[in-house]
Amino acid sequence: MLILLPPSEGKAAPARGRPLDLASLSSPELTPTRERILGALERLCHREPDHACTVLGLSAKQGDLVERNASLASAPTARADRIYDGVLYDALEAGTLSTTAKRRAASRVAVTSSLFGLVRLTDRIPAYRLSGDVNLPGAGQIAGLWRDALDPVATDAVGRGLLVDLRSGMYAGFWRPSTALAPRVATLRVLHEVGGERKVVSHFNKATKGRLVRTLLEDGADPRTPAQLADALTDLGWKVETGEPTGKGTQLDVVVTDL
């Protein structure tokens, strides 16, 4: 099973740690694209910080993020599960997983990254700022760059197992599973139900996805199909409604009434 997460927009910057070593990251096939994007991002932020703010969608008050991007190659690194933060990762609480669940997380969870393509939670990376919709001078459209590079790597990472796709729309555009994988692709949507009405609410969506992943890792369930995943989540106490299979996969709706 591969559980594919979106990155957090904000990152926790480590105060110390060894510098970035691209050769040490998982999926070494992605190194050329990583080098291309990293080099272009550092050059832009070092040479044209004001223009970098515009390109990256930052305000003038966020100049510290541009400065951070200008020296990523020498910046301190930490495990990805300590770099990514925000609602989903706060709910996942990777650092407090049991020893067995941490081992499962290392092999079953990956993050879609604008800078690194595909990141495992144990990969050491620096804090960076780069959204998936950026057109980066000297490199190009981030999503397009990864569409060209990720397919064989992500497909291999899924292997014969189930893909649990929790990415947001922006990062789903980096790689779309083939129709051959569709019977083993489950996408999850979280619906907040209040007074009989259901809505997609960002905070509930992210927090619930983090808790779902944590629950699956602690339980150890290894479903092979979307239907088996729905059954596993139901057994774990979640309310799940299964959609019809399509050429893109099967959508599971997780209905929650509170956090």
Question: How does this structure look, described?
Answer:
This protein is of the alpha/beta class. The protein has one domain (2-256). The chain has helices at residues 31-47, 49-56, 63-69, 80-83, 87-92, 99-108, 142-158, 169-172, 202-219, 226-235; strands at residues 2-5, 78-79, 109-113, 117-120, 124-125, 135-136, 140-141, 163-165, 185-194, 197-199, 239-242, 250-256. The strands form 3 sheets. Strands 1, 3, 4, 8, 9, 10, 11 and 12 form an 8-stranded mixed sheet that branches. Strands 2-5 form a two-stranded antiparallel ribbon. A two-stranded antiparallel sheet has the order 6-7. α1 packs across α2 (49-56) and α6 (99-108) packs across α9 (202-219). The protein starts with a strand and ends with a strand. The model has no long low-confidence stretch (mean pLDDT 96).
Low-confidence stretches: none
Rg is 18 Å
Gross morphology: globular
Total number of helices: 10
Give the count of structural domains.
1
User: What share of residues is helical?
Assistant: 25-40%
Mean pLDDT: 96
The SSE string, one letter per element, is EHHHEHHHEEEEEHEHEEHHEE
Count of β-strands: 12
Give the percentage of residues in beta strands: 15-25%
The largest sheet, given as strand count, sense and whether it forms a barrel, is: 8 strands, mixed
Structural class designation: alpha/beta
Kindly, what is the distance between the CA atoms of the first and last residues, rounded to a whole number of angstroms? 26 Å
